[in-house]
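$ ./design --mode recover --in tokens.txt
reading tokens...
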């Protein structure tokens, strides 16, 4: 499986963006939306985006695998955000100056508390020993997923720390279209970021599982290639998302040769998401847990439910059921 860029920071849009004073299609209660212009972002041009490797942008929640207390753990995304007073000052500055630049933060006083185990994401800038916020006023970071924390119960369902494995969705080895549900050692996923998708994440656009039998899995970032992606052109991309069966995705992430990540998603182009059946949810899938599947039957998480399905093939990912 090709290992590509780890997603630790906000990824810039492939086009320069503009802010429209109208209700967001993506974020409830947000009274503005960020839309793409037809001008390609200089960051994308500098990174030679036309020669980049295009992968599917997945609609879930970002996770990370790293060591915690001497063993490999799954970490959940937790951005440190400003408190109400600081948020008001920040928004006022943003409205007055039409920019986030030159806003002065007091990192010790302006931000909400986070758990002691919280760590800032890679490449977060520091000042006087403190991580400082990005242009959105957030400090990206991670917290370890512990079984005792019910807030992250869906994260917990895809890992077994005793066995040291995670439930992962990845492309099959012997078929371009086939997806494979498997168990991978957390050690093999070290320092990677992944997307948790499933029944109780972001409205479940991929149609996985049900309320009675929720299904979740981790998808390594950069692992689902986009076949025959269109050139980086506003009109061509807009048409591709609406007319091509391969375009039934939330967006594209380009992995450039210099390590830069660039993205586009449907909301940038004023398009709905989801809009009918998704490309990922309609792909065939097989459960391949290998010879160790019997060991997973006693697992506390989803692995025990998948164990009896070892070797079973489904015509669509969204048809997987126990």
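writing sequence...
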């Amino acid at each position: 499986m090709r290992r590509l860029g780890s997603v630790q920071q906000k990824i810039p849009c492939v086009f320069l963006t503009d802010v429209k004073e109208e209700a967001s299609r993506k974020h409830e209660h947000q009274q503005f939306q960020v839309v793409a212009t037809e001008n390609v972002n200089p960051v994308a041009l500098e990174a030679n985006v036309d020669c980049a490797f295009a992968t599917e942008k997945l609609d879930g929640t970002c996770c990370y695998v790293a060591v915690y207390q001497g063993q490999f753990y799954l970490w959940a995304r937790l951005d440190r955000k400003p408190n109400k007073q600081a948020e008001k000052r920040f928004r006022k500055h943003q409205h007055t100056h039409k920019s986030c630049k030159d806003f002065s933060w007091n990192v010790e006083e302006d931000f909400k508390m986070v758990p002691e185990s919280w760590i800032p994401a890679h490449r977060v800038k520091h000042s006087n020993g403190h991580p400082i916020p990005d242009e959105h006023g957030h400090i990206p970071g991670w917290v370890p997923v512990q079984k005792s924390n019910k807030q992250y119960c869906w994260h917990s369902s895809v890992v077994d720390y005793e066995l040291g494995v995670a439930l992962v969705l990845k492309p099959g080895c012997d078929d371009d279209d086939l997806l494979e549900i498997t168990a991978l050692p957390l050690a093999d996923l070290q320092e990677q970021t992944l997307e948790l998708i499933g029944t109780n994440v972001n409205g479940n656009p991929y149609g996985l599982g049900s309320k009675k039998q929720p299904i979740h899995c981790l998808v390594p970032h950069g692992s689902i290639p986009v076949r025959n992606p269109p050139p980086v052109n506003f009109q061509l991309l807009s048409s591709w998302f609406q007319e091509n069966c391969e375009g039934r995705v939330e967006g594209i992430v380009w992995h450039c040769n210099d390590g830069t990540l660039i993205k586009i998603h449907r909301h940038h182009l004023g398009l709905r998401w989801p809009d009918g059946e998704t490309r990922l949810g309609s792909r065939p899938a097989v459960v391949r847990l290998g010879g160790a599947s019997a060991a997973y039957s006693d697992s506390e998480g989803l692995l025990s439910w998948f164990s009896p399905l070892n070797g079973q093939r489904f015509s669509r990912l969204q048809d997987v059921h126990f």
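exit 0
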